Structures are given as C-alpha cells and as structure tokens.
Amino acid sequence: MFTRKLVSVVVSVTLITTTFFATINSGSILNATLITQGPTSTSPSETEIETVEVAAGGGNATAPWTIFLPQEVRIKTGETVTWYNPTEVGEPHTISFVLDNNTMTDIVSPLGVSNTTEFTALPPGSNNEPLLIPGEDGTNTIIAVNARAFNPTIIDSQGTVNFMSPNANYTMTGDEKYINSGWILPKGLEEEYPGSGNTFAMTFEKPGTYDYLCILHPWQTGTVVVE
Ligand SMILES: [Cu+2]
Known about the structure:
Number of helices: 2
Radius of gyration: 21 Å
Number of strands: 16
Distance between the termini: 17 Å
Bound molecules: copper (II) ion
Strand content: 35-45%
Structural class: mainly beta
C-alpha cells in the first residue's frame, strides 16, 4: 500500500531504549536495526527509525501530477512522514495542514501600502513591477506572495507565527492551528524559487486523522492517520 524507508539517525542511548521498546510494542522489530553501546556509555549510537515516504506531485512536463501518493498513510505515534517532489519539472507543491479553519490561506497576499510608496524593480531595469491597485484614504493595495504559503510556517495554539528553514523537520504536538511545509520542488530545482526546499518531514505524537492539502493546488489532498 505504501513504501517504508529506513533512515539512519544518530540518537542517544536513552532514545534507543525508548525506540527499542516502542518498536517491540509496534510489532515491527524485524524492520529495525539496532546498534547499541554499553548502558554506561554517553556517546551517541546509531539506530534506524522508520519513516513513511509520500510523493508530492509527480509526472513530467507534459503531465505534471497534482496528487499525493499514497493519498493516505497510516502510522503509529512517534513515526515520521517525509514528503518529497519527484516531478521531472519544477512544479512546486506544499504540504499544508489547516487545523483551524480560520488559518486557510492562499499564495496571493493583498497588503495595504501607503500610496506615496515608490517601488524599484530589482535588478534595476528588469522587466517587472508590483501589481498595485489604487485605493482611497492614502492607501493602495499591493499584491505580494504570501510568506505563510511560501515558507515553512507553524501557527501554534496561541496564534503565534513561526517560520522554519527550508527542508524543515518538525514534530507536531497536535494542537497547532496551521502547519505548512513551504514550497517543495524536485531536488536540484529549488533554485528556481529561492527560499524553497525539496523535502518536508513531520513526526506525529498525537493519534488522530490529519487531512492536508497543497495550497498551490487546493484539490490536491492527502491524509495521515496516526494510530
Ligand atoms: Cu500541489
């Protein structure tokens, strides 16, 4: 139904113990490779933790796909889902969890700006200018790209907005209002959109059914079931 990949990470002896028993409980001991050191050692040891991989997009220049594959994955608490973009061309996608309906968003960001503000194209002389809509009362509207759609973004339960670096690796508590991967491009093609990434990984700590979508293609949806 879906593929699982073993990813090597360096963890402490304490975490290995935790992972070891969690793995036994999950009944998937055969999938885990454990390399442990003596109980008195404090140096890092290596173990392998399961992650589930999901493709965001796919296809080629003739027919880029706007799907998540697999569309639904089932994991256990403490497991990680990693999304990547296998498309042959630079078609971006986002992995966006709108956990509070009020946090639904768009890539287009209309912002008020003083109508005396002057904008300069960069590099100077290049063929671009802002989309500016004349307004009243000394304010125009400028249309910008929404940073909360473009950048990896978390809005926590208190409404605080935090941005993460591209290729973020986030552990979800389950009470966030909004979690967005930022723009995910095929590896090597992220330079087309400076600040974008090519992967997003999230660890799920709270059981539940989590629906997500791509903000760039809102009909592109997926589900993570955490048991
Ligand atoms: Cu998409």
